[in-house]
Design a protein that fits this description.
single chain, elongated, 21 helices, alpha/beta, about 5% strand, 5 strands, about 50% helix, 5-stranded mixed β-sheet
């Protein structure tokens, strides 16, 4: 021990500058303004101690002083520390034999040494002693399964080979504990919490293998369902809008930009994985979402708000029509989903001779949910004017009717605008006693907002998929019957509408900016 006493702080600085800072003795002497001889003596004392081969960061400053310069610490502290060093090997053997845990050993120690270390210090010094002496930690295995019945063992072996992850996890856990594996190691292997594995053990030991649920179920309250529905609608509403409206310099959405826009729009964070789940739950992969769900119309909000304003202020003597064409659809054998025996394979011929084709032009009146339809040979302005005249005749008691359709070229032709302007003249109105006509076009590439697309989707699923009509007329009869039954059901009891075959329509027949009315697969 050096004869000249220096402060504990300087002694520590010498040690840390030499070991951790990499300074030589001369530099340390100049830095701390002490003689080189003093520095040399303290460094020499360190190099002769057993601490030289350990990491200094493992020790507290107080511990270092005690281990290197015991005369700078009190004899009482030295005795406490030395006493522990004598006890630790004995304690380790007890731990190894499973006779006690560390807390029980500390209680035994403190009973003899009333002024001994607190539990946290005791544990710290134990692990420090273990590291210095390169002694491995003992993993206690309190959680184990001594006996598994042969029948249960057979089931667990089958589960372990199963492709069902839930079965595999439980089999690995229970068989591992039966083979005296440590629960911590099993937890890391199957990537499940120790708490969950303990629940499995308790359930298995109390009630047997049948008591372990393979699938976790969580009760979803009505309030949570409503929140999920609202969030889904908000996401789809956002998808419909072009990213440019949200100051995002992209032509299409991705999960990252959608997440950012959702937070700015609704003040609530949503992860990319959650967004993906909601989008897929709507029946779209993200690739389809970019093609089908997003309009690139720069006037998207203006046109959308105009339609919403019309509907919110719609009077009793006014009617709003959603208009589109279904087809052309070839009359031939068509595939689709249907209940069939497991052993039976339904097939559709690749090459077929068409029996003809149909185009169904239709209008859905939103307030009463009534369909007006006829069959066309072509999609053009002439057919649109024909539909307009039919609606003027059928709804001549109304004061005003609104036409809403997508941005197809024949929907926005000069000839149609000219006809509408003629109908709206006072002379025509007085002579023919017809309502005024107002056009409310949808944004371009926004077929997903056209409510009648949902009706076409339900109709296609009900009477077009899996069909094998022998003629065009037979197909028309089926379509006529479908729309007649639908109209009758809505007239008799609007609240119950959707409980019959038209429940296959993918959205309810109301205009909402969160709707996805067009299913890209329905035709």
């Amino acid at each position: 021990m050096p004869q000249k006493r220096i402060s504990i702080q300087k002694a520590l600085k010498i040690l840390k500058l030499y070991v951790l800072g990499g300074l030589n003795k001369t530099r340390i002497s100049k830095t701390l303004n002490i003689s080189r001889g003093t520095v040399n003596k303290y460094v020499d004392y360190y190099e002769k101690s057993y601490v030289v081969n350990t990491n200094l960061l493992l020790y507290s400053d107080k511990d270092l002083i005690h281990r290197l310069y015991p005369k700078l610490t009190s004899s009482k502290t030295q005795f406490k520390s030395e006493r522990l060093l004598e006890l630790f090997p004995v304690f380790y053997e007890k731990l190894k034999a499973g006779e006690a845990n560390l807390k029980q050993l500390w209680a035994e120690y403190i009973e003899e040494e009333s002024s001994g270390y607190k539990y946290s210090q005791f544990v710290y010094k134990y692990h420090e002693w273990r590291q210095i002496n390169n002694i491995k930690n003992i993993k206690l295995n309190k959680w184990k399964i001594d006996k598994i019945e042969p029948d249960d063992l057979q089931i667990l072996y089958e589960w372990r080979l199963s492709t069902d992850r839930g079965k595999w996890e439980k089999a690995v856990a229970l068989l591992g504990l039966h083979n005296e594996e440590n629960i911590t190691d099993i937890s890391k292997k199957i990537e499940r919490s120790i708490r969950t594995i303990k629940k499995w053990i308790v359930a298995f030991l109390d009630k047997g293998l049948a008591s372990i649920d393979l699938r976790r179920t969580r009760k979803v309250t009505d309030e949570v369902k409503e929140k999920m529905k609202k969030k889904s609608e908000q996401i789809i509403k956002l998808l419909h809008e072009p990213p440019m409206l949200h100051n995002i310099n992209r032509t299409s959405w991705n999960l990252e930009t959608l997440s950012k826009a959702y937070k700015e729009e609704y003040g609530e964070s949503i992860s990319k994985s959650t967004l993906s789940e909601y989008i897929r739950a709507k029946g779209y992969s993200f690739k389809k979402a970019k093609i089908v769900l997003t309009s690139h119309d720069p006037d998207y909000r203006k046109k959308l708000n105009n339609i919403k304003k019309i509907l919110s202020e719609l009077k009793e003597n006014e009617k709003f029509f959603s208009i589109d064409e279904y087809g052309p659809v070839a009359i031939k054998v068509r595939g689709g989903r249907t209940y069939t025996p497991i052993y039976q394979l339904n097939t559709v011929p690749q090459f077929q001779i068409s029996k003809g084709s149909i185009i169904c032009t239709a209008a859905l009146e939103l307030s009463k949910n009534q369909i007006t339809h006829f069959y066309s040979n072509k999609k053009n302005t002439t057919e649109m004017i024909k539909l307009l005249m039919i609606l003027l005749k059928n709804y001549n008691a109304e004061e005003r009717i609104f036409f809403s359709w997508d941005a197809a070229s024949w929907h926005a032709s000069k000839a149609l605008d000219k006809k509408v302007a003629e109908i709206n003249t006072p002379e025509y109105h007085q002579t023919n006693n017809t309502p005024f006509v107002e056009l409310a076009p949808l944004p371009s590439s926004a077929q997903f907002l056209n409510v009648i697309e949902s009706v076409f989707s339900g109709m296609a699923k009900a009477i077009i998929h899996n069909s094998n009509y022998q003629s065009v007329d037979e197909c028309k009869i089926a379509i006529d019957r479908y729309f007649d039954e639908r109209n009758k059901a809505f007239i008799e009891n609007p609240k119950r509408a959707g409980k019959s075959i038209w429940m296959q329509e993918i959205v309810e027949p109301v205009f909402k900016d969160s709707n996805t009315c067009k299913d890209p697969n329905y035709r």
